[in-house]
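User: Last request for today: this protein with adenosine-5'-triphosphate, please.
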Amino acid sequence: MSNDVITILKNEIENFRREIKAEKIGHVLEVGDGIAKISGISGAASQEMLMIETSGGEATAITFNLEEDSVGAIILGDATSVKEGDIVRPTGRVLSVRVGEELIGRVIDPLGKDQDGRGFIFTNEKSKEVFYPVERSAPSVIARESVGVPIHTGIKAIDAMIPIGRGQRQLIIGDRQLGKTSIAIDTIINQKNDTRHKTPICIYVAIGQKESKVAKIVATLKEAGAMEYTIVVSAPASSSASLWYLAPYSATAIGEYFMEQGRDALIVYDDLSKHAWAYRELSLLLRRPPGREAYPGDIFYIHSRLLERSARLNKAHGGGSLTALPIIETQLGDVSAYIPTNVISITDGQIYLEPELFYQGIRPAVNAGISVSRVGSSAQTKAMKKVAGRLRLELAQFRELAAFAQFASELDESTRRRIERGRVLTEILKQPELHPMPFEQQVVLIWAATNGIFDATLPAEVAARGEAFLDYIEKRYREATTDKIRASGELGKDTEEVLVKASEEFWKL
Ligand code: ATP
Ligand code: MG
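Assistant: Here's the final one, the structure of the complex with adenosine-5'-triphosphate:
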């Protein structure tokens, strides 16, 4: 009998214990500069979301530094409401953002809140629930396919000589105000010109830019009809370093969603220099030991694990892709500084912009001599490859001769001709911003220039002549030339014959 009572009591006690739900809560020990030191949650995971109960409501933070007796967390959004002693609850979830179709055409912040005041209506029952963690591991080598489909920027100098393929990571690098952003925006706009390939979903990530500048970019994209397939993720200059830091990761999560749906996505990080500053600021506030240029030791790793997430998946994994165009701002053209060298070594190629070219009026100020694309040429169309090889060679010869010819008083006929050809080609490659050109027109124009069609034209008139020639072709010979090049991706003998005939007629006009 007494044994029974004891067993019953024992059971009761055990069950009673089981009913108690242990909830780990912590307290804010110290807060300042958007950083909170928290005690009592030593089991928290890295990048775990924390809810802080403030006097006015709730604030979100994510764990950053996991130490033995405390956790360093960055507060997202308004940090002023968080006070010492506030209660902190770990959520058990790593930071995630909502992904889905509904984001297309919208401007959001790195946490997925709308910035355009329109609110969100998630029409699709499914996308109400689709959250992707902002940090994920990159697709494995086995899931990847080599680059083979182009992303046309619409910029002649780039599509011809520094071609980019879907899944590639191509860096745009240069000093301030040299047209870095313009190249990225033109690329986004040009995606609707490219009817030969599926239009990728474009994601423009603005890191630490003035709100007015971002608004202007959105207006430009809207006007060009490009917002129909674009998402803008903005952590403006006025927002905290934590949001600057987070922006590229959450935008990448959104891009990954489309990639995993078997679609193509293109992401522009404008720019990673500011992202590195934000990370340095956070790290210094968290008292991480500073290394070279005061950046923390893992700055290389944070950019490499971001860019590793760009990929082209193979058929078995849906065949989607995520192409990355990171932007880096250099100081006085110093590409050997810490952050530029890091990002150069992580990317598959670089587009270098040069102040001298920009000020000479050669815009876009792409230095084709030192810019490279290590994988993109396998994605280039046959037609472009055919005309671009010659362009590259003639321009290289021109650069060499032009430097040399400065000292020579008399030039022989062939040298003089080569220099003149080089001048024509330089003129042909100039292009105003917001005027991306479909690749088939680029092919025709470069074909014409490398075949000497404009050799007798004064440099100042080359651009106008080129345009007139394209106009003539489009009006009279579209079917036999540009339409054909676009459909087949090739520049056949028959097309070239039509072009020869057309150019003869053109000069007789
Ligand atoms: P920042 O360092 O401020 O971000 P950036 O390198 O991104 O600058 P942009 O803002 O793209 O450069 O362009 C700088 C200026 O150059 C702008 O006034 C723009 O209008 C002009 N510009 C850019 N590309 C061209 C072009 N192809 N032709 C003529 N002007 C151009
Ligand atoms: Mg810019």
